[in-house]
Amino acid sequence: xxxxxxxxxxxxxxxxxGQTPSTADDFNxxxxxxxxxxxxxxxxxxxxxxxxxxxxDANIYNNRGFAYYSKSDYxxxxxxxxxxxxxxxxxxxxxxxxxxxYSNKGDHDRAIADYTQVLxxxxxxxxYFRRGFAYYSKSDYxSAIAxxxxxxxxDPNFVDAYNDxxxxxxxxxxxxxxxxxxxxxxxxxxNYSDARDNLDYARRLRGR
Length: 208
Known about the structure:
This protein is mainly alpha-helical. 72% of the residues lie in helices and 0% in strands.
């Protein structure tokens, strides 16, 4: 699954010895550690200092953007992901992260554009799934089904893709295919309560 990029260094950062971080890499690493602890405000402070020291590192902008995203500050996250992309036009993770931020803002067209760029650069099941969800949110059920199907092709155990494809089929009135997808989701994960609820509802609609 695509995630925020961390810059891994072989050298031990100086601040680990009780000293104040002094380099962009030091602040970036400490920011990542704060982020992993859920302390996004301190993470943002450290990423901001890292950017002051090295304003041309796309990874740091992506990392700060992810921290803003984690605080549901989608506008600032989009600004940082956009800067990361300006610095590295092939930055797959930044496109994916920005697509997620646009999606959470309800800007599904821009989300689709970013996921499409991800798929041009690095086809993967997560991007197909997320683009499928964006299409579904626009009531474009055929495109959603096509993308969920691609996600399943790349990851045959992608349980959420089966469930969401089933929902899209249900919206189109194809209850047989919807039921088949919910049943497959439950075979993969018998404890998947959403798929169980969806299956029961689809069966009731079909009259079983």
